[in-house]
Design goal:
The chain has two helices and six strands, in the order αββββββα. The protein has about 180 residues and is α/β, with parallel strands linked by helices. It has a six-stranded mixed β-barrel. The relative contact order is 0.16.
């Protein structure tokens, strides 16, 4: 009977040992899975941080997109009756060909829009104009009479028919280009 008890005890102990070893393997597998999950979470945390930085940069770029300035738009010819005594020279000193200037995309702005008078533009700045039959990119070369405010004037070749717009948007491209370039 002692032998039977020893055999039963040995079989029981062996089963218990196999059970413990099997449980240890299961615990190791669970630890490995836990380690993999932590690595995946770390990776996801890094991705979230990276995406947050990207979103921050995109929001900064969005904030730097130029806002439109609403103005009236007219046109002028380079003649004394519409300019000063030297109509073939713009306010920035540029020379004008009075018969071909329409293709140059030059404009004058009211003096209140110039930096020296509290505005945001300087001669040579480029703007995008929207809301006319001549939408596009223009360069500021001239200024208008002091009595005009919030207005632009398209410089046109002699013979171009007069036109006028009351609701035009202009965008300061040079300012956006500098901000955009500094973010890259």
């Amino acid at each position: 009977m002692k032998t039977a008890i020893k055999t039963i005890f040995f079989i029981g102990f062996t089963i218990l040992l196999l059970f413990v070893l099997n449980q240890n393997k299961e615990i190791e597998k669970l630890h490995q899975k836990e380690k993999e999950y932590h690595e995946a979470l770390d990776f996801l945390d890094d991705m979230i941080d990276s995406l947050n930085l990207e979103i921050k940069d995109l929001l900064k770029d969005l904030d730097s997109i130029p806002s439109p300035i609403n103005v009236k738009a007219t046109m002028y010819h380079p003649v004394e009756s519409q300019c000063d005594s030297d109509p073939l020279i713009t306010a920035d000193g540029s020379k004008i060909d009075p018969h071909n200037v329409s293709d140059w995309n030059w404009i004058a702005v009211s003096q209140d829009m110039l930096l020296k008078n509290g505005g945001i533009f300087e001669y040579g700045d480029q703007v995008y104009i929207k809301g006319t039959h001549k939408d596009g990119v223009y360069t500021i070369h001239d200024c208008m009479n002091k009595r005009k405010t919030k207005q632009i004037d398209f410089l046109e070749s002699i013979g171009t028919k007069q036109y006028k717009y009351d609701n035009v948007e202009i965008f300061a491209l040079d300012m956006y280009s500098e901000v955009y370039a500094s973010n890259e």
